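Quick sanity check, Branched-chain amino acid transport system ATP-binding protein:
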Amino acid sequence: MSAAPGSAGGAVLSPRAEGVTPSSGARTAMLAMEGVTAAYGAVEALKGVSIHVEPGEIVTLIGANGAGKSTLLMTIFGSPRARSGRITFEGRDITGLPMHQIARAGIAQSPEGRRIFPRMSVRENLLMGAQAMGVDPAPGLEQAFTLFPRLKEREAQRGGTLSGGEQQMLAIARALMSRPRLLLLDEPSLGLAPLVVRQIFSAIRTLNAETGLTVLLVEQNANQALRLAHRGYVLVTGRITLEGTGAELLARPEIRDAYLGTH
Ligand code: ATP
């Protein structure tokens, strides 16, 4: 895989210690989280997380069940709120901003579990994505149907009658309707057959390569995610423990043992 634009030649594989300062990339990053903590009551889900995502990169965050991956994505949108630390997008501090302002700044999210509207048609689901942001739906619809021809075929069908893979395509396409510069994807492979996962990941790669869309992808499917991503981070119980290029992380014995089985 080619290096991402602006990724400074790829991050060096480095174990991360608690309280470590973010690398210098954070200053020019599209997205930077610096020392972010977040909690649900007494449960501390993020314990001082620092990551950065450069323009044009696909960055993946891998980790076991309950490591805090979804929380990290949700904290970017302010729910739960960061208890400490800072989140910046294109140099602007977005920590604590209301959700709609974060979306208007250029970030969109496709949440875990897809959350499409089951009674609405595919087209109506897509239009909702544009309407919420007050943007012209035409370019988004064209992109959605080019990227996922299956959605065009099923344009008038209710969302709830689609297959799991088609629902995932719809969730991604709907997030793109707001014309974001950064797309947050939470476990797009969840519950899908391997062939469908490959289709979804291939679409993400195409989007990134052809439109320069920057992607932060949370995945339990570490193998596929690290093959797709330019860089990755490993999250273990709320702390980043390792970072590196996708290839570097795939080659690490501890990653193979913990996340890749016998691959
Ligand atoms: P999964 O892959 O299962 O979604 P994850 O890595 O995304 O896992 P999170 O869902 O972010 O992990 O959960 C991180 C921690 O926060 C876990 O200990 C989880 O039990 C806890 N947690 C998550 N959501 C809540 C909530 N709404 N209330 C209380 N605790 C929560």
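Posting the structure with no commentary besides this: Residues 1-12, 17-26 have pLDDT under 50 and may be disordered.
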